[in-house]
Design goal:
mainly alpha; Growth Hormone, Chain: A; 11 helices
């Protein structure tokens, strides 16, 4: 239930983000989007130090080698994904970044298997629940972020809406977590998180299939609303219980590791969604 409420707050942020961003792009300039975060960060730093309790796992040593390998590896992969269309997927810098990043990630896995205090114990992936949650998070982010990005471009560049108007038209998707996440979180306490997560993936897939069927240059907005709602319901149903399922798949002292791995794979999925 608590994670459902947390999901609703995240949903509020997701819903207001395109509106605020659209207004800034339309009336100021897109660079102001980055400056807007500066005062927010300045205010949140002392608030976090005041209110957030510190927690630590049993391993207090930093896995320096593992940190460097996975950071550089993921940087190379994401850089290649982002610059692939611009520089050409077969160009030297992109191939170097993608192949080099993949090699570094493999070296990271080998290092984690042999080091005594790994930052991400590979044995966690023997747990089917842990592996399944992470694969689902990567795929959900791939479909969701890619679709939201392309739909925003479709509203503006194809249908001629302004940035603010596009943000308003995305509300049936981005606003659904405010309504759906709290009951989805409470329901997961009663019947378990897995059925809710599977339902979320189903609704997300159904929404994307609807878009694939109806989207064309002259499509009416009313024809897209059901797909937007389905995508929003799926996103809310997925993210409300997913943290609970993830945390339940590992021991208490390894929950921070599990959360970090899941967030990294989700962001990787989001990057993969853009060119896909």
């Amino acid at each position: 239930m608590a994670l459902g409420a947390w999901g609703a707050v995240n949903g509020l942020a997701v819903a207001t983000g395109p509106l605020i961003g659209g207004a800034i792009v339309e009336h100021l300039s897109w660079q102001w989007i980055f400056w807007l975060n500066v005062p927010i960060g300045v205010l949140l730093v002392p608030l976090a130090r005041w209110k957030l309790a510190e927690s630590r796992g049993p391993n207090s040593r930093l896995d320096v080698v593992g940190t460097v390998l996975v950071s550089l590896g993921l940087f190379g992969i994401v850089y290649g994904i982002i610059r692939g269309n611009t520089d050409g997927w077969s160009s030297g810098p992109i191939l170097t970044a993608m192949i080099g990043g993949g090699v570094l990630v493999m070296l990271f896995v080998l290092w984690e298997l042999r080091t005594r205090e790994p930052m991400l114990p590979m044995r966690l992936f023997r747990n089917r629940s842990f592996t399944g949650v992470n694969v689902a998070s990567l795929l959900m982010a791939l479909g969701m972020f890619g679709a939201i990005f392309l739909l925003t471009q479709f509203f503006q560049n194809i249908q001629g809406f302004s940035a603010l108007q596009a943000g308003i038209r995305m509300l049936p998707w981005t606003g659904m977590p405010i309504l759906v996440a709290p009951p989805a979180g409470m329901l997961s306490d009663r019947i378990g998180g897995r059925p809710i997560v599977i339902g979320g993936l189903f609704f997300q897939a159904l929404g994307l299939a609807w878009f694939a069927e109806v989207t064309k240059v002259g499509v009416s907005y009313s024809s897209q609303v059901p797909a937007l709602v389905l995508g929003g319901v799926g996103m809310a149903m997925f993210y409300a219980p997913i943290a609970n399922v993830l945390m339940g798949s590992v021991s208490t002292e390894e929950q921070g590791i599990a959360s970090g791995a899941n967030n990294a794979l989700r962001e990787l999925g989001g990057a993969l969604g853009w060119p896909c």
